[in-house]
Amino acid sequence: MTLHIQEIPAPEAPMALLLLADPSEDKIRAYLPGSRCFVASNGAEMVAACVVQPLGGGIHELMSIAVSPAHQKQGHGAALLQWVIDFFRNAGAHQLEVGTGSFGYQLAFYQRHGFRVSGIERDFFVNNYPAPIFEDGIQLLDMLRLTLSYTGQAR
Questions:
Q1: Does the pLDDT value for residue 154 go beyond 60?
Q2: HSE (CB half, 13 Å, CA atoms) of 90?
Q3: What is the C-alpha separation between 38 and 50, in angstroms, rounded?
Q4: How far out from the chain centre does Cα 56 lie?
Q5: The pTM is what?
């Protein structure tokens, strides 16, 4: 079955999916207004979602991207991310940014799509979440900022 990707109104964003990528519903609800939400469906089932927030000056930040556990490792997240990258490139964006943990599969996921490390926010996860977040048994402390620049790329 073909994956169908589309934009939906941010208030209709699938919270259960977004909570897989960001454990704070309060944070998600804070960045949803003014953001754009994109979902990937496989038939009638929504399998992935992402939220992108404009930062101004042709720069946008990928705030969240998540794939339902039953559909992970099937290329749905990669397909959704590539679709979003192309969407913003075609819309004339200059840059797409994302913040992620300093280790783990997410870092390689973004780098495979052309994102490059552009900064580190030390103790981000400690200072911005009420409870520790662990991945593969290691506590997330620092957030890496990654950037995908459209400058010089074909539109």
A1: no
A2: 6
A3: 5
A4: 18
A5: 0.87
